[in-house]
Structure formats: structure tokens, C-alpha cells
TrEMBL record:
GO BP: arginine metabolic process; citrulline metabolic process; positive regulation of nitric oxide biosynthetic process
Organism: Corallococcus exercitus
Protein known as: Amidinotransferase
Keywords on record: Hydrolase, Transferase
Active-site residues per Swiss-Prot or TrEMBL entry: 186, 282
Family designation: Belongs to the DDAH family.
Keyword Thylakoid carried by entry: no
PANTHER family xref list: DIMETHYLARGININASE (PTHR12737:SF9), DIMETHYLARGININE DIMETHYLAMINOHYDROLASE (PTHR12737)
Lineage of origin: Bacteria, Pseudomonadati, Myxococcota, Myxococcia, Myxococcales
An example Gene Ontology molecular-function term: amino acid binding
Pfam families according to UniProt: DDAH_eukar
Entry superkingdom: Bacteria
InterPro entries for the chain: DDAH-like (IPR033199)
Length: 312
């Protein structure tokens, strides 16, 4: 199926299947599992396969019920983390075009996914941008409302220099935030930005300077601190669809914050994916709808900022 931007709904996502299609001889490598350890949450051999399948189906059912639409990407044989579709690419819809910035994964176990992902995204109508020479992963990118740019987590998986790559892709400013907690290794485990510009943040996951930068970022309306305990329960790894916020666990304090912000939190058990270090946000890659490109104005603003810094 080829996507057309005229058919992109406000909440459209790419999701991965959790096992291979029946087009080759079945083996142990045909389905999601935890077979290595590249983050502190991973517990090799611990996944209950049938439970994982049931949880994934329920998650997608909840996503659809909330008003989300999605298209499926095939599971990559032997690349078990390919279920976490968000990490593979940053997806945008802009001025009649679909574009995908392919990630450059830090760990070799995940690089095996990228060739297949690039091929399948291209088949679905995306102009796939080759992965940059610096590490950047989709889980480290948080988009800001109204096309104001993005936040980039760096220090664990992505590198600080990737901010420039992302700025060029979006033609919008990117604020790099340094992560310092190995258990909160991707930005989407430590922070989420809601559609009104509210940032829910685990302060312990960031350096003090990064927290100051976040508070000054245009597009961030308020910063709400969330306890590290709740972040470790994947309470910030959530998916917002309209007024509904899907969380992959019961996290009462985060749910209370969301209700106070006028949202409707819905919890779906995703503990079988927590065993690999991911949850709701990791399982989907949102197609972000951007405003008309104004690359020339962005370049002019960059030049003005650089001139002011030189004259200061």
C-alpha cells in the first residue's frame, strides 16, 4: 500500500508486526523476543510470546479506538527490536510529500533493521533520506507543537551533532538535551511533549544545563516534573491521540497529572515489551504533519543568531 499525503490523518502511525509473514520456513528468529542486552531493562529469554502478541493486538485496538490510524511494516527476520518502529526513522508529511529520515543506530544488533525498513518505507511512498554519519535514533526525537522544531536527546544512543542533521531535515530549530541516566536511555523514556506544549519530564534523567535549555525552548509552555520511579515504569513512554493518552502500564501519578491537564489516560498492559526496554511510544512512529516549509526564513534566522553571537 502506498500512502498519499491527502489521506494522512492527524494521528497516523507506522507500526511493526511482531513476527514474520508466512513466506519462508519458520524458525526461532521469526518473532519478537529478547535475545541480547543493549539497555539495562533487557532480560534475554524472558518474553512470554503469546502474551506479547495479545498485548500488541490490544494496544493497536486501543490506538484505533482513540482515533489513530496506522500502516504495518513487516517484522525484520532476526532483528527482534524491529517491533519498536519509532526508532527506525523520523517520519513527516509536508507540502504534499512524505519524507523519512532514516536512523543511524548505535548498536549493531539494531543496524540490521535499517535496510529493510528503508525499502518498505519507500514502497509506502516516503522519500527516504539516507542515514547520517552520526548516531541518531527516532526514540531520541520529540517534536514540538505547530512545527516549532524538535528536542533531541543525546548522550546514550544519539550524538549531540545529530541536532544539526535533524534541523536540516525539519528546516526548524532543534534543542539538544543531554541524557545522563542509563535506565532512561532514549528521550522518549524520560520526557514527553503534549500537543499543547506541556512537557512531562523526569528531571533526574537530564543534566542541569539541559533542564534550563528545555525551559527556555520556544514551544514549551510548561514543564511538569515526573518522579523517576514513574519514568522507570514507562509512564512517560506514551502516545497521545486527540484527548486520549495511551500508557503501557498503570502509573497512577502520571495518570492524575494527565487528567489535571484535561486528558483521558488509558492504560494498556505492555509489560512483555518492557522486558526489552520499550513501551507504547516505542511501538509506533507517528507521521508528523509539518506546516509549509520555510527553509529560507529558517536559514536567515540562523544567520542572524550566528551574527549576534559573534558580535556579543
Amino acid at each position: 500500500m502506498t500512502l498519499h499525503t491527502g489521506h494522512i490523518a492527524p494521528a497516523t502511525f507506522a507500526v511493526s508486526q511482531v513476527r514474520c509473514e508466512k513466506d519462508h520456513v519458520r524458525s526461532r528468529d521469526c518473532a519478537y523476543q529478547v535475545a541480547w542486552n543493549i539497555n539495562p531493562h533487557m532480560k534475554p529469554g524472558a518474553v512470554a510470546w503469546r502474551r506479547a502478541c495479545a498485548q500488541h493486538r490490544e494496544f493497536l485496538r486501543t490506538l484505533r479506538k482513540a482515533g489513530g490510524t496506522f500502516f504495518e511494516l513487516p517484522f525484520v527476520h532476526g532483528a527482534f527490536d524491529s517491533v519498536f518502529a519509532k526508532d527506525n526513522a523520523v517520519l513527516v508529511s509536508q507540502e504534499g510529500e512524505l519524507r523519512a529520515l532514516l536512523a543511524t543506530m548505535r548498536h549493531g544488533q539494531r543496524r540490521n533493521e535499517q535496510l529493510a525498513r528503508a525499502r518498505w518505507l519507500a514502497a509506502r511512498g516516503f522519500d527516504v533520506i539516507e542515514p547520517p554519519r552520526v548516531h541518531i535514533e527516532g526514540g531520541d526525537v520529540a517534536m514540538l507543537p505547530a512545527g516549532r522544531g524538535a528536542l533531541l536527546g543525546w548522550g546514550m544512543r544519539s550524538t549531540q551533532r545529530a541536532a544539526g542533521v535533524l534541523e536540516a531535515f525539519l528546516s526548524a530549530p532543534v534543542t539538544p538535551l543531554e541524557l545522563c541516566d542509563p535506565y532512561l536511555y532514549h528521550l522518549d523514556t524520560a520526557l514527553t511533549v503534549l500537543s499543547d506544549g506541556t512537557a512531562l519530564v523526569c528531571p533526574e534523567a537530564f543534566t542541569p544545563e539541559s533542564l534550563r535549555m528545555l525551559a527556555r525552548t520556544e514551544g514549551i509552555q510548561q514543564v511538569v516534573p515526573i518522579a523517576r520511579e514513574d519514568a522507570l515504569a514507562f509512564g512517560l513512554n506514551l502516545v497521545e491521540v486527540g484527548n486520549t493518552v495511551i500508557i503501557g502500564a498503570r502509573v497512577p501519578r502520571v495518570e492524575a497529572v494527565l487528567r489535571g491537564l484535561g486528558r483521558r489516560p488509558v492504560s494498556v498492559r505492555l509489560d512483555q515489551f518492557h522486558l526489552a526496554g520499550g513501551s507504547a511510544a516505542c511501538l509506533v512512529a507517528r507521521v508528523h504533519t509539518l506546516p509549509p516549509m520555510n527553509a529560507q526564513r529558517f536559514r536567515e534566522e540562523q544567520q542572524q543568531d550566528e551574527a549576534q553571537q559573534l558580535s556579543a
